[in-house]
Each structure stands twice: as structure tokens, then as C-alpha cells.
Amino acid sequence: MREVVILGTGNVAFHLFKAFSEAENIQVIQVYNHRQESLKDFSKFTDTTTSINELKPAHFYILALKDDIIPEIAEQLKNYRGIILHTSGAVGLNALEGVTNFGVFYPLQTFSKNKYVDFAKIPVCIEANSSENLERISALASGISKDVREIDSEQRKALHVAAVFVNNFSNHLYSIGAEICAENKIEFSILKPLIAETAIKIESLKPQEAQTGPALRNDQKTIETHLEFLNKKNKDIYSLLTHSIQNLHGKKL
Amino acid sequence: MREVVILGTGNVAFHLFKAFSEAENIQVIQVYNHRQESLKDFSKFTDTTTSINELKPAHFYILALKDDIIPEIAEQLKNYRGIILHTSGAVGLNALEGVTNFGVFYPLQTFSKNKYVDFAKIPVCIEANSSENLERISALASGISKDVREIDSEQRKALHVAAVFVNNFSNHLYSIGAEICAENKIEFSILKPLIAETAIKIESLKPQEAQTGPALRNDQKTIETHLEFLNKKNKDIYSLLTHSIQNLHGKKL
After folding, report:
1. Is the pLDDT of residue B252 over 50?
2. pLDDT at B112
3. A238 contacts B207? CB cut-off 8 A
4. 3-state SS class at A91
5. Do B110 and A175 touch (CB under 8 A)?
6. pLDDT at A243 over 90
7. Residue B157: how many CA atoms within 13 Å on its side-chain side?
8. Is B130 helix (H, G, I), strand (E, B) or coil?
9. What is the ipTM of this complex?
10. Is there a contact between B115 and A247 if contact means CB atoms under 8 Å apart?
11. DSSP labels, B150-212
12. Long-range contacts made by residues B192-195, C-beta under 8 angstroms, separation at least 24?
């Protein structure tokens, strides 16, 4: 049985807790948070603590915490023998260097508390301070995901940026779509099949092959009509992305 | 039996032909294109012609053509009694005003020739020059889609702009994600579950509620690290979309 202590109670902690609890041979033996209030969803299922000095002996300590407190929490765990892991896309492996055994366990997905995700399909990016620890982390990750990949800190940083584009920024474009619908008394639901198909399409086509629209066709008449229609803020986004599409496809297609 | 003539052989024509052919009580009796070559995929299944003067009598003539030739083709159909429909998001109903019976049949979806789509789930936006014609167009659309909506020309123009944001521009963000992966020797496939989840999430959450990431958290340290990492072109996009997220959520949340 692999024993895990989770530090943190946010969305990543919540979904990891759930996935580990459902896995064979993995047990979350404790959850830590400095606020008692945040532990109440977990205390029904496992031991909890608000004291960093009362963590149990475990094989893994998973720091699902805000980026900037990772080094300071790791510092307080330096006498533990278990593997200390952080779950951040933006923090290097070296943020944990004070401890004996350490690594990274970065699930590349967007998590919301009330939205179920199938952890088996989530890529888990792992990294470690030694090949032995990498193997142990790999075994842990394979217990909950079918897609475990060794990704170094530089690559993970690149992935984190890429994730902002495909997730945060795409979602913001959906918000702009919703805004345009609301202003014109159209139900946003009308755009949902298009949004779904846009995402599904890249399962079978490369994004560059899937590109369509006035920018790609260099359909100036439509582009001008659209720009006239838009407010200043969205006009700037429309122009910049239109030019970016034309640059990419002018150069590479 | 509703008889349909399709003018055009592009992606919209191809998918409409397929959907009508599978529908009960609808028959595509002819496909027109000015180039013989483009008709060869259709001639196995129905009558085809390269002459605009040899169109058969039909209930509906569907102009699945480039936006700028719609008025000139419509002009040539002014002696026909069937309902002349265009399928464009960007062209007003009035582009067809020379003919007797006319309307719009705009399927709001992205079509690629080799990518199957379930037409039943595609919203079809309809508009007509009379309430009788609207009913007839509605009956035709209901034969292939479960989601038929009356949308006027102004709303359709708004929808077309919104579609550029959620489809063309989102897809371009996927291309940027793919580019960043390639530059860092990471397989693009690692981003696919995130892209899928981003799109699926708005089935249950409004896009504004689903927003996450450094821009929303105003996590300046991560934003700066990301900006340093990016090339000039992508840095501009990152900055503009980050500010846009902060504007939207500063104002409305």
C-alpha cells in the first residue's frame, strides 16, 4: 500500500484525493491545511491536521499549494524521508532542493470543484531528483492515470504557457462569444455545438489543418464588416488574432 | 417529398447533401457547379449540371456558394418559383431581394470534408421574406436538425462574429499551443485532454464561471515568467488576452 499525505485543499487537492481514494494500493492517510475550516470536506474520509509538525510518516507528501509557498513548506519537511512532490506547472524542480527525496507530479488539466473529471485520461507530468524516485513517482501516477510522461522543468514551463493559451484564453474567447450573444438577444447555447466541434476536430486533424474562416481565406470584406461591428476591446483582439493566423499560415502552409 | 437543388460543391454543400439524402421526405434532385470537375463526388448519387439555365423545378434552391457571388446567382434565378436560400452567416436576407420567394438557411457549424458531423445537433438559423416561407423553411430544416431557430440578419451577423471568436480564434490558440510544444520537443497530444475539457466545461458552467488561470488570479509573477518565455508575436496575444480577462472580470465578477 502506498501511503500519501496531501497538503492543500484546493481544486487540485480535491481531485487528487478523489482519484487516489478510488485507486487500488494507494491510501491518503492525512490531509493538511493551516485552516481547520478547509479540512471539513476531507475529515469524513481520512485523518486531517492544521499543524505542519504533525504530519504522519508516508511514502509521498503532495504539495497541492499556491506556487509561492511551496519552498517555505518544503523547508519545513526537510527531515521527512518520504518523497516530497509539488503539483505546479510553473515551479521548477529545484524549488524543493532542501529536502532529501523530491519530485514533481503535475496533472495537466483544468479542475473545478463541482465538475467531474476522469483522472485516468489526464496526462501526469513527472520529474524527480533521482531515477529511483522517478520510478516510485511513476508507479504512483500510473495508479490513477493511463498517461504518465517524464517532462523536465523547462518543458513543464512551456506546457504551462501552452495550457494558458488553449485553456484560459480559449475560455475567454467563449466569454466574448457569450457577451456578443447577450448583446444581440441570442441564447449562448446556440454556440455550444460549434465550440464542442472545434475542440473535437483536433482529435483527427492538426490545429493548422483545421483552421478555417475569414482570416485564413483573407476575406477582407468580411473582416472589415466584423471589425465595424465590434467594440474597441474586442476589435483589438480580432485584429491581432487575424494577423497572427495570416502570419502563421502565410509562413508555413 | 420536398425537392431540393443545391448550388455549390464546397464543405457546406457536401454536408447538406449528405444530411438531406439521409432524411425522410427530402430529396436532392440536382447539384449545380460551374466546374464539371467539382461535381464528380455528387454525380454518382443525383443529377448534376454546370449550366445555371438548366436547373430543375424544385421546392428549394440552396445557394451554398461564396458570399460575393450570392447576389449575382440569385439574379439569374429570379424566374424560379421555388424558395431561394443562402447559407451564409455574413450575408443579409436582402441580398436575395430580386427573387420571389427567399430566405436564409445558416447551419452554425464548422465543416471539413473528411470530418463527420451529426447534423441533427447543428443549430440551423432560418429567416424568410414571408411567414409562409418561414414555415416551409422551418419544415425543411427540421427534417435534418433538432435545433431550428429564427434568427434575423442582424443577429446572424453577430453570431457570425461570435463564431469567429469561439471557432477560428480558439483553433488558432490550439495552433499556438502546438507550436510551443513542437519548439520544446513535447508531443501535442498531451494538450488534447485539456482542450476537450475546456470545451466540455461550458456545457455545465457559463464561460465566465469556468475562467481560471494567472490572468484571473492576477498572478503577476507567473504572467511575467510567461511573457519572458514567449516570442514577440505570442507575447502580444498573451498580454492583450490577459488584460481582456482582467477587464471582463474586474467589471463583472
Report:
1. no
2. 83
3. no
4. coil
5. no
6. yes
7. 14
8. coil
9. 0.94
10. no
11. E--HHHHHHHHHHHIIIIIIHHHHHHHHHHHHHHTT--GGGGHHHHHHHHHHTTTS-HHHH--
12. B192/A202, B192/A203, B193/A108, B193/A109, B193/A121, B193/A122, B193/A123, B193/A147, B194/A108, B194/A109, B194/A110, B194/A163, B194/A166, B194/A167, B195/A166, B195/A167, B195/A170, B195/A199, B195/A202
Phi, psi of B84 (to 5 degrees): -90, 120
CA angle at residue B224 from B185 to A86, to 5 degrees? Answer: 60
Q: Is-contact B223 B243, C-beta < 8 A?
A: no
Instruction: Compute the nearest-CA separation of B69 from chain A (Å).
Output: 13
Q: Averaged over B14-33, what is the pLDDT?
A: 97
Residue of A nearest to B164 (CA): A213
Largest Cα separation within chain B, whole Å, is 67
Q: What is d(CA A225, CA A244) in angstroms, rounded to the nearest whole number?
A: 19
Shortest Cα distance from B204 to chain A (angstroms)? Answer: 8
With CB atoms and an 8 Å threshold, state whether A194 touches B109. yes
Which is nearest to A20 in space by CA: A49, A51, A76, A59? Answer: A59
Is the pLDDT assigned to residue A252 strictly greater than 80? no
